[in-house]
Hints:
- There is one protein chain.
- The chain is of the alpha/beta class and 318 residues long.
- The protein has three domains: 38 residues, no CATH class; 168 residues, Rossmann fold, CATH 3.40.50; 75 residues, SIR2/SIRT2 'Small Domain'.
- The site of zinc ion has 8 residues, from loops.
Amino acid sequence: MRVSGFVTLPWSGRVECQPCGSAMVTPAAPRTLRRLRACRPGEEQSDEDGERKAHPRTYGQAAARSPIAYNSAVSAQRLAELITASQPCVVLTGAGVSTESGIPDFRSPTGIWAQYDPMEYATIDAFRRDPAKVWDFYSKRLDVLKDAEPNAAHLALAELERRGLVEAVVTQNVDRLHELAGSRAVIEVHGSIRTSSCLACGHREPFERVVELLPVPACDRCGAVLKPDVVMFGEPMPEAEFERASALVRGARLLLVVGSSLEVYPVAGLPEEALASGAKLAIVNRSPTPYDGRADLRIDAPAGVTLAAVAEATWPPV
Ligand SMILES: [Zn+2]
């Protein structure tokens, strides 16, 4: 296995190729992944101006330029080895996998719940009480989600699936970005913004139509207010999806958690199921989780650069 030398500058989201010093800011997603792949020591590489230059053969100079940067490639190499050796691998993703696509998470100090009280905007009771207020909140979220693109983390997971190294992605996210990145086995345990449904007659509308119907989308058939097909607090999980997720996790040899602080049950119970079935646990997250002490590998680094490095380290296909 081979690892490219990139450094991440965590305070800025900048990613540098250590050999050539070319830098990009996550999320520059598809291009980032292509360029990270394109960087090879000793080879030529086009820079931003299209000027071609050779990589220096040593990594030392670039590292010395960024004395407080850390090298996530070592952790990525270990994760790549763990994934390769522990098949099947199932991935569990949370909001942290999408923050590099410009989608705010929920629980960090700058997250959605720092601005909005979930009891007022995210419970099924709040929706029944005042659907217009909840839709006002959702219309702002849809506005961000409609333009969001998959980042390097989504693309790397899709690539790992294509190579047979990821069996499925279980996601708490409702943003469709795994699907847009090309992942095929995606289990959306908290639903999706892909559709909204009428609670009165069951009529369902696609995302694009719902956006047209804002600010308060009404059912074309009966006039009742539509509800986004995401799981609100107080609603049951979609049973079939959760059973499938649970079965996948129990059958896995490795559960890779990416961008979830594992605080919301029942999803937060999936690592417990994996461990009880003898699987290994790896966690890539920017904040502590209750499972850190039981994980075989814990990486505190951005999901995009980490998973792009893992995809790189597992090349060529095994
Ligand atoms: Zn209806």
